[in-house]
Amino acid sequence: MPDKITRNNKTALLFGGSGLVGSFCLKFLLESPNYSKVISFSRRPMKLEHTKLAQEIIDFNRINEYSNLIQGDDLYSCLGTTIKKAGSQEAFSKVDLEYAFQIAKIASENQVGQYLLVSSVGADPESRIFYNRIKGKLERAVAQLPFWSLHIFQPSILLGERNESRWGESIAKVIGKGFDKLSGGLLTKYKPVEAEVVARAMIAAAQKLDGGKYIH
What we know:
two-stranded parallel sheet
């Protein structure tokens, strides 16, 4: 077990801190006594100041140029987009697979101990569904990296306030909740979950002292 895992003055690395789960992660990381520093990587600065927060504004197309900055104890990857927002499947794959994997690879090479990834329920590298296939390919790729501890979170539809409107997800939330009740909880893994709950679970998992690979 790496000594740095047991410290209470850890450094957290956060990608996707402006997103739904990532924004909660950022909030809870700054509040956590286990972290003395939180480094947030993003394209644009956030309107947030905190004594523990360091913001790094980067160009994801040139991520290798920032490799010296991706150093710490726990890497939280909440990076992600939608096909609609990205504009194409190719652009979506670039963010959710290429960028995400390159970040993880750099972190592992810099001996970051733990990697915590927000993926999706149904992630499968062989799936016929494009979204699930990309998520599955990322999971398979990062599982090969030598992190001391890897935690992959596979939430269903995420509940919470978003900056942009996603009417399709809003409808799915209502249907999902009702469907879970009708199934008697047999399909619990497909039940919508609060983004705040996912973020709290990620931070709690990072404080455990058991190495290995875990799917949540």
